[in-house]
Structure formats: C-alpha cells, structure tokens
C-alpha cells in the first residue's frame, strides 16, 4: 500500500470514529439509558477524546515539535476539566 | 518529512495563532462555566430550549468537512491537483451546510423571541456561537481561496504550505465546535 493510501485510510478511520463518538454522545445525553450526570460527564469526556483525534489524526500534531504538542494537549485537558468541574459543582 | 512538521518549521505563526485563538475560547468556556455556577437552574432550563439534533448535525458536518481537508493536504503532497480541488470543493460544500443549520437555528430562536438579551445563558449561547461562526466564515473563505489557487498554480509548490496552514485553521474551527456542542447543548 502506498504511503498516501495508508494516510488516507488512517484519516478515514479517524473520521468514522469521530462520527460514531458524536452519535454516542448525542444518544447518551438525549436518550434516557443512563442518568443525566453520567451522560453529561461522558459527553464532555468523549468531546475531549474527539478533540485529540482531530489534533493527532487531522492536524498531525505528533509530527510537530514537542512543546506544541504539549500546549495543545494541556488545552484539551484544561478545557474539559473546566467545564466538567463547573458542571459538577453546579449540581450541589 | 511529514507535512505538518514542514508546515510548523515553515510557518510556525499559524500554530501560534491557532493556540492563541483556542486560549481565548478557553477563557470563554471559563466565563460560561462561571455563569452556569451562578444560576444552574436557569442555564439548564434554557439549554433545554436548544435543539441538540442541530448541534449534532453541525458537528458531523464539520468533522466530515475536516476529513476532506485532510485528504486535500495529502493530495497536495502528491502533487495531485485534481484531487486537491475535488477534496477542497467537497470540504466547502459540506461546510456550507453548517451555515445553513446555524442560520436556521438563529432564525428559529429569534422568531420565538429568544435573543442574546433574553437571559445569561442565551447571551453566552449567541456570543459563543457567533464568535465561532466568524471563525468558520474565515475558514470557509480560506478554503475557497485555496481551491481557486489550486487551479492556477502547482499544488506542491509554495501553495502546499498554504494548504496545510489553511487546513490547520479549519481543524481548529472543527475542534472548537466539538467542545461547544456538549457544553451548550448537552449539559443536563
């Protein structure tokens, strides 16, 4: 398989995972299969995973110099934590 | 050498711009969270008015458009001009769906008397989504520009770096929405 076909295949798998993960968060939050706090928490955590997939598979962050990768990874963790903590605190 | 590394070495300013923009949105996330803590019941009640199916649709649209941009970048590295134009055109066409959904959503809210003045939640909703929408418009303009240039000059010359930079910016638009969707639409 050529290098380009491999890259295309990998990006396509990433896209499929993103669509599935998005559907999952919607289904969890909008369905009533699990309790709301669990669904919301899962939705936010899955969003973090999705952002990382965009960073690593779409933006090829792995190939960037390490300080850049660290900065973007910190952003993901900080953003998700911020929203999650706010959500958790607001329920008490 | 991987394309992203080439881009970073050749045009590190795009990553600087992107991370700075993301930090600004991070501050917005913080402000929204603070607002939510002050009145969680209001925020939850107001968020329930939003239609999460539209948020879901917009997420799938941007993610799919981003996938096409990735394919365009790979095609550029292979000097495959026609593939570059095909993937960029698809990215733009799919991306246009985001605007249709968003404008429909805004129109629906406003026609029901809901504006950014309605309450704190809707102030955040309109400000955040329209700030994001402005970034989206810039991204769309960049993609259209790149598609046009790819018809006029080699895609593996200087245009290659521009396609990668433009692609990175578009992925930022995508990832910001990935966070905004659950934050605004799915918190129960």
Question: Topology of this structure?
Answer:
The complex is a heterodimer of chains A (92) and B (188).
Chain A (H helix, E strand, L loop, with lengths): L2 H28 L5 H23 L7 H24 L3
Chain B lengths: L2 H8 L1 H27 L1 H8 L4 H26 L3 H31 L8 H30 L8 H28 L3
Explain this structure.
The complex is a heterodimer of chains A (92) and B (188). Chain A is an all-alpha fold. Chain A has 3 helices and no strands. Chain A has helices at residues 3-30, 36-58, 66-89. In chain A, α1 (3-30) packs antiparallel against α2 (36-58) and α2 (36-58) packs antiparallel against α3 (66-89). With 188 residues, chain B is an all-alpha fold. In chain B, 84% of the residues lie in helices and 0% in strands. Chain B contains 7 helices and no strands. Chain B has helices spanning 3-10, 12-38, 40-47, 52-77, 81-111, 120-149, 158-185. In chain B, α4 packs antiparallel against α5 (81-111). The radius of gyration of chain B is 18 Å and the shape is elongated. Classes of the chains: A mainly alpha (92), B mainly alpha (188). Chains A and B meet through α1, α2 and α3 of A and α1, α2, α4 and α7 of B.
List its traits.
heterodimer, A: 92 residues, 0% strand, flat, B: 188 residues, mainly alpha
Brief description of this entry?
Chain A is mainly α.
Quaternary structure type:
heterodimer
Q: End-to-end distance of chain A, in Å? A: 55 Å
Distance between the termini of chain B: 46 Å
Give the SSE order of chain A as H and E letters: HHH
Radius of gyration of chain A: 16 Å
Hey, which two chains have the biggest interface?
A: A-B, 50 and 49 residues
Give the integer mean of the pLDDT values of chain B.
Answer: 93
Helix content of chain A: over 70%
The proportion of residues in beta strands of chain B is under 5%
Q: What is the structural class of chain A?
A: mainly alpha
**Strand segment count of chain A:** 0
Q: What series of H and E elements makes up the topology of chain B?
A: HHHHHHH
């Amino acid at each position: 398989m050529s290098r380009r076909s491999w890259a295309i295949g990998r990006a396509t798998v990433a896209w499929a995972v993103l669509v599935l993960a998005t559907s999952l968060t919607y289904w969890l939050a909008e369905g009533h299969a699990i309790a709301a706090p669990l669904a919301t928490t899962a939705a936010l955590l899955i969003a973090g995973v999705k952002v990382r997939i965009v960073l690593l598979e779409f933006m090829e962050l792995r190939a960037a110099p390490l300080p850049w990768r660290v900065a973007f990874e910190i952003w993901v963790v900080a953003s998700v934590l911020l929203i999650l903590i706010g959500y958790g605190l607001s329920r008490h | 050498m991987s394309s992203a590394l080439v881009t970073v070495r050749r045009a590190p300013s795009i990553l600087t711009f992107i991370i700075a923009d993301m930090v600004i949105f991070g501050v917005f996330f913080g402000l929204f969270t603070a607002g939510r803590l002050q009145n969680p019941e209001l925020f939850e009640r107001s968020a329930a008015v939003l239609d999460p199916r539209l948020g879901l649709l917009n997420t799938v649209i941007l993610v799919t458009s981003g996938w096409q941009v990735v394919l365009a970048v790979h095609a550029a590295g292979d000097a495959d001009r026609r593939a570059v134009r095909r993937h960029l055109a698809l990215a733009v066409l799919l991306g246009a769906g985001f605007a249709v959904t968003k404008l429909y959503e805004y129109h629906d809210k406003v026609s029901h008397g809901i504006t950014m003045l309605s309450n704190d939640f809707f102030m955040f909703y309109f400000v955040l989504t329209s700030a994001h929408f402005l970034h989206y418009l810039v991204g769309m303009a960049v993609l259209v520009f790149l598609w046009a240039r790819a018809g006029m000059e080699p895609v593996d010359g200087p245009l290659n770096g521009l396609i990668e930079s433009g692609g990175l910016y578009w992925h930022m638009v995508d990832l910001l929405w990935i966070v905004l969707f659950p934050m605004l639409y799915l918190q129960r």
